[in-house]
Amino acid sequence: MVLCKALTERLPPRYDALILAARPAPAPCSPALKHAMTHADELKSSGLKATLPRIKILEVFQKAPRRHLTAEDVFKVLLTDGADVGLATVYRVLMQFEQAGLLSRNHFETGKSVFELNEGKHHDHLVCLDCGRVEEFFDAEIEKRQKAVAQAAGFELQDHALSLYAACTKKNCEFRTAK
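Above: the chain's sequence. Below: its structure in token form.
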């Protein structure tokens, strides 16, 4: 049995030096195995068991070209990848990820919940009224102005969510559907 180095480094201390010395040198881990172990560690540190559906759904968010995904978007990616994960499981895992703080949920005017990885950095959103595309932005002046408005009204701002709804002005917007 050939164990990769990352796995042998995690062996509990009860394995004595003689047993470890008698083993063949560990083979280098494949990048996929190291990546999966990172996902498992992320889930465990959030208090979640590292199941295959959870790992696959986390990978969808980490690899997706778009940051804001609906449950249906995640499900379609999993179907395309040949993963055996049902839509009900996707919804359940997304709720668990949100409760664990791995994902943030937004309710834009599309009528559907949209999820994104919670990276701990505050940002605001621009939402296209034509196609629903979401762009993130941060503007220090807007942040400063919001705090000033709250203070002037006798409040201390604790948190906020700003979503600006706009129509795309690009003539050949790649996200706009043909009308």
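The CA atoms of residues 56 and 78 lie 8 Å apart.
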